[in-house]
């Protein structure tokens, strides 16, 4: 009985280790505590100011929280005209997580009539994958760095496991 519990614990800890190392993406919260709302009239550029202060990368996500509103991803023309007739992405669940699956600009607007015009819209520029990845694909010399990273991860996991087994036994 006792050993089953320990095995379960061990399994969970190993799982945590792997998650810790595999998660390199980041989730951004749009609008902080206020969430995704019509910005105040004297601060209508609030979303684009916020967006320009962050470095978004492929694989990152953003979370929109809102009430009685919606999120749309649209083209640049639709963004400029607040045209919500044909969004490529639409959600009105109140809690929307959007993942950036490629680099380049993403255009978001509120789908509620009049909100986009009042400034509830945002451009997010997603950067190319991390520089280290770009280097690997460019030069043939660097894959060594990649595999050494893999080894150090493995060593760390082994270390944790050994430490745990000492604790348990
Ligand atoms: C906008 O107006 C509010 C009051 O209506 C004020 O508290 C706030 O500081 C103003 N923000 C800016 C950026 O001027
Ligand atoms: C809105 O966008 C759609 C599709 O992109 C287009 O057909 C339509 O003419 C646009 N409407 C306005 C008012 O610009």
UniProtKB/TrEMBL annotation:
Q: Keyword Zinc-finger, does the record have it?
A: no
GO molecular function terms attached to this record: electron transfer activity
Keyword list, A-Z:
Cell membrane, Disulfide bond, Glycoprotein, GPI-anchor, Lipoprotein, Membrane, Signal
Coiled-coil intervals, chain numbering:
none
Q: How does it sit in the membrane?
A: Lipid-anchor; GPI-anchor
- Which InterPro entries does the record cross-reference, listed alphabetically? Cupredoxin, ENL_dom, Phytocyanin-like, Phytocyanin_dom
The family note in this entry says: Belongs to the early nodulin-like (ENODL) family.
Q: What is this protein called?
A: Cu_bind_like domain-containing protein
Instruction: Provide the species name.
Output: Cephalotus follicularis (Albany pitcher plant)
């Amino acid at each position: 009985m006792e050993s089953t519990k320990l095995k379960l614990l061990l399994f969970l800890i190993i799982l945590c280790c792997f998650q810790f190392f595999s998660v390199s993406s980041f989730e951004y919260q749009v609008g902080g505590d206020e969430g995704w709302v019509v910005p105040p009239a004297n601060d209508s550029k609030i979303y684009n100011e916020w967006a320009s202060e962050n470095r978004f990368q492929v694989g990152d996500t953003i979370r929109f929280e809102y009430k009685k509103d919606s999120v749309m991803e649209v083209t640049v023309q639709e963004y400029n005209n607040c045209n919500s007739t044909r969004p490529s992405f639409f959600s009105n669940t109140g809690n929307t997580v959007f993942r950036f699956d490629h680099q380049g600009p993403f255009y978001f607007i509120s789908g509620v009539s009049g909100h986009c015009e009042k400034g509830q819209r945002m451009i997010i520029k997603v950067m190319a994958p991390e520089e280290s990845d770009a280097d690997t694909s460019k030069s043939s010399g660097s894959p060594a760095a990649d595999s050494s990273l893999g080894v150090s991860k493995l060593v760390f996991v082994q270390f944790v496991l050994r430490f745990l087994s000492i604790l348990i036994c």
